[in-house]
What does this fold into?
Amino acid sequence: MADKNASPPRNTSRDTSRERREFVSLMTSRVRDVFLRKPFYVDGSMDLVSLCRALSERGLSEALVRDGGRIGIFTTTDLRDALLSETPPARLPVREVATFEPCSVRPDAELFEALILMLRHRIHRVLVREGTDEAGIVGVLGQLDLMAFVANHSHLIALEAEQATSLDELKAAARQIDSLVGVLDADGVRVEVIAALVGELNRQVFRRLWEMLAPEDLRAHSCLVVMGSEGRGEQIIKTDQDNALLLADGFTCDGLDDITARFTAALIDFGYPPCPGGIMLSRPLWCQNVSAFKDTLRQWIHGGDRDGPMNLAIFLDAAPVAGDAALLKAARDHVDFLMMNDAGYFARFAQAVERFGEGGGWWTRLPGLTGRAGAEIDIKKLGIFPLVHGVRALALEYRIDALGTADRLQALVDTGHMEASFARDLTDALRFLISLKLANNLRQIADGRPPGNAIRLTDLGTLERQALKEALAIVRGFKQWLSRHYRFDAL
It folds into this structure.
């Protein structure tokens, strides 16, 4: 007998087509294309009871708050927190609980920018404005309105992760990210857009997992960070996990080793492979209080630790995911203190771009490749790493806070340390190399192989080979530029 409660069979082809249209809509539409709620303004002195009455009469869940020369926003989330105040709601002015300087986007911004902003700040509304004053406010974009426009109310991965109540539910959300990557890539979405969206979704998963496993006092007295390509927002396919946990000085937590081990194990189960180098918070080196970690940083920079420069490079890309971000900032500021304009260290650090040889000038044989040298290349060693690390070294030297390579390049231009045309070429080369790696990873996964950095050149078309040759020529020119800048010949 058939189960009356069983779900109807899914039409996989129809579902895939619908999902593709939804995500393409997300990537190609503008904020102005979505329904925007007209702003409803109240004075900052209005009490919460009167405000809630006014919202109920209008069927609204948010209001913009005027308070002198500033504009804030009040939502039902603020009401929840306000009810915990000792002041009765009838005597509590809305200015005391509203959020001022709310996140905003331009009407001509791409819709994915608004989604990423919501994911990053864990909010459900953003202001849409054309200027900085009140007259420039066009309306309010809500997450439900965005979802209705994009997906006809179908659940987005981020909401599934946020609302997950078990590890199995969170795993189901995490597992959808790879399929999303394939859909976006097949529809020609720009690789930097895919990377930004995937990065935010990954952090949503990490954050929710940490909330599930870590007690509240641990979360309040620590900072969960991601590093490496994940921290830079340049990892798309799950290749490994680089994470750490910084603890407040003097704080202890019973069972911490078990908590961090469960976190690492859960991520592995979710499809995030373990880091071959052990750069995970379940390892003691990457789970320390701030003072101890500062001592570790000193050893990496001034000691004889052979892995010190590599570990430092990974840490320089650290981004906070959950907890007290001030702990990460204290550790990162200590790096600049230890450097004290040490030109010699900057040069030695940057020289890692020459770690991998040129292979006898193999690129000169593209696209007519023959023999073993033309069988495959390591796209990370020959292209991505020298570019990323060289820019990272410059960011360290000039104390640039940006994490993404493209953002660091723009900061170098803005501060007068690099020509705009050169930075543009490097950015274009990096995006091409990452897109080539992504396409190769998707082929590897389709063939049942683990995703990696080795690219079979015979898999590339003539135009791809030519573009690869030009991208690697730009990287080679950058390495020569770095050699002159840091005087590698004098080391």
